[in-house]
Specification:
By secondary structure, this protein is of the alpha/beta class. The protein has one domain. The chain is 28% helix and 12% strand. It has helices at residues 2-13, 63-69, 108-125, 140-149, 227-240, 282-286, 291-306, 336-352, and strands at 49-53, 79-82, 130-135, 161-166, 189-190, 195-196, 207-212, 257-261, 267-273. A seven-stranded mixed sheet has the order 2-1-3-4-7-9-8, with helices on both faces. It has a two-stranded antiparallel sheet with strand order 5-6. A hairpin with a 4-residue loop joins strand 5 and strand 6. It starts with a helix and ends in a 6-residue tail after the last helix.
């Protein structure tokens, strides 16, 4: 039953490319005496080209618009080479009357294998220092290719390549585990999506792992009996999953970064990006509820939700999850057409619903 539930979650969530939302007031304060956040690994200024593996592609979605922007804050100015693959696999099961448009009729596993092959080929054909970035479903290919390169005598030197994932639904990071890693171990096969969980390689390449706070895809609650946290994680996956790929490293507070060094001397840095508001109650703000009223609700809910994550147990090392002033505003990072459609949707709801409470 556990695997069935996990498979259903994967089918619905893995590779999600949604993302919207923008002001609880209970955000943790920063610690100004702490050292500045580390620079992005992979020596971003020397990366001349970025190989970008985008996330899932819904029908009639401007996939290239978002894929070209993935990691723009970490590797500014680098040339972009998009790694094409059947990115619409996550939506192959959705009926056309719900989502009209073309789709890729392959499994997520087959899609990932093709993405890995295409990325591997691009890396071996490249002649310039490069960085690989992968968003959501596209991040699956990064672990696979790093595992291939780990013992490949023709692999680029460690100082000529780095890997950065955003919102990886199957990986683990320094703070916790993704939704798939919470249910499956490396090497496990998930039949419902035909995906084999990647073996975590001891890579010679520096790696970034980046996700937004409360993103249920990339950072699943440790304590799954906390239903409030599970619900908030679902909202967080929809609202802040993709926009986290467009943040700069200097926008992440020091206590939200953790760095380790492996046996091959490569560093792995995890960045947790704070959000500006609790995802669960964000729709209330769009429905016209006063900021003060929703802040009061968030002040009650956030401690209960945060208790589901073990990284919050130690108050001295607890990261900032919500920052109303400096936290990520997902609405600021989506394309204008999508932003307008979201605002129009909530405007129509406000017209038919009772007025919000004072």
């Amino acid at each position: 039953m556990k695997r069935l539930i996990a498979g259903a979650l994967a089918t619905w969530l893995v590779g999600s490319v949604g993302g919207f939302g923008p002001g609880v007031a209970t955000g943790d304060p920063g610690f100004p005496w702490m050292p500045p956040a580390p620079s992005p690994v992979g020596d971003a200024p020397t990366a001349k080209v970025v190989y970008a593996v985008g996330g899932a592609r819904p029908p009639d979605f401007d996939w290239a618009y978002y894929t070209k922007r993935v990691g723009e804050g970490f590797f500014p100015g680098a040339k972009r080479e998009l790694i094409n693959y059947p990115a619409g696999a996550a939506f192959s099961w959705v009926p056309t009357f719900l989502l009209p448009g073309p789709r890729d009729n392959v499994t997520i596993g087959a899609s990932t294998r093709q993405a890995s092959n295409n990325l591997d080929r691009a890396i071996h054909q490249g002649t310039e220092p490069a960085a690989v970035v992968g968003l959501s479903q596209g991040a699956h290919a990064l672990d696979e290719v790093q595992a291939r390169l780990a013992n490949d005598p023709t692999a680029p030197p460690p100082d000529q390549l780095s890997f950065t994932s955003f919102g990886d639904p199957q990986g683990a990071n320094a703070f916790g585990k993704s939704v798939l890693a919470s249910f499956f171990r490396p090497g496990d096969h998930i039949p419902v999506i035909d995906l084999t969980m990647a073996q975590r390689p001891e890579s010679q390449y520096n790696t970034n792992r980046i996700f937004g706070a409360y993103d249920g895809l990339a950072d699943f609650p440790d304590r799954m009996d906390n239903l409030l946290a599970l619900l908030n994680a679902g909202f967080g996956a929809f609202i802040g999953h993709t926009p986290a790929a467009f943040i700069r490293p200097d926008q992440v507070p020091p206590q939200n970064t953790r760095t380790t060094v492996n046996s091959r001397g490569a560093t792995e840095t995890t960045y947790m990006i704070p959000v500006n508001h609790l995802p669960l109650t964000l729709p209330l703000r769009y429905l016209g509820w006063s900021e003060a009223k929703v802040d009061q609700i968030d002040a009650v809910l956030q401690p209960q939700i945060d208790s589901a994550y073990s990284f919050n147990d130690n108050l001295l090392t607890k990261p900032i999850s919500v920052d109303p002033v400096n936290g990520m505003d997902p609405m600021a990072h989506v394309d204008p057409a999508f932003r307008e459609s979201v605002l129009n949707f909530f405007a129509q709801l406000r017209a038919v619903l009772p007025p919000p409470p004072d």
